[in-house]
Amino acid sequence: MTLIEPAADRHSTALAPDLRSLPERAARAWTERMAVRPRAGSTYAVTTESDSTYLVDIAQHSCSCPDNRIRGEHCKHLRRVAIEITARRVAPPGKERAICDACGTVTFVAADARTPHLCRNCRLETGDVVRDRETGDRLVVVDVTDTPAAEWIIEATGETVADYDTNGGYPVDDLVVLATYLSEAVRATDPREYAFPLSRLRRVEDAELVAP
Ligand SMILES: [Zn+2]
Ligand SMILES: [Zn+2]
């Protein structure tokens, strides 16, 4: 079986446009030094090179600068906030910057999201079909816990998930995922749940599900 790893940062790059082809305001949105900080709701504080701070509301398409307020222009501050969100350097409205508990990359989670915080590559949800990297078996995720593999005791054997025989190759601080075997899940009314280190399981994409 060949494991195809997801591209590490397929959603985290943005290419700068050809600045010569942009109108002046748009070009300045890319090139000027500005600090963008998320505020409440859909608002962002943008501090410019000349140390002025303006309040941008990305949902309202408004900015407190004269360019927007008085002249009604789609100002460079508004554009810059959109650029920073698209490039995933600042959190989109309603989200917060967080570190993925599984792989350590920066991700954005709902402001009130419960732990664990997982990035898009690592995120598994109840009902996801996954493949065991060790055996190739397909399973259904029952729960993603926030307990590390080193602290989860397997009842049947009394050892931790991290110490379990075939889990040696996975980080001891991997979060424990509970899953049932797909073959059992469709047959049994009360299928048994097994505990896995998160990175041992790989989400099966929809296209793979229809393949044998
Ligand atoms: Zn502005
Ligand atoms: Zn991750």
From TrEMBL:
Pfam families tied to this protein: SWIM
Keywords associated with the record: Metal-binding, Zinc, Zinc-finger
The protein, known as: SWIM zinc finger family protein
Domain SWIM-type: 54-86
GO terms, molecular function: zinc ion binding
InterPro entries cross-referenced by the UniProt entry: Znf_SWIM (IPR007527)
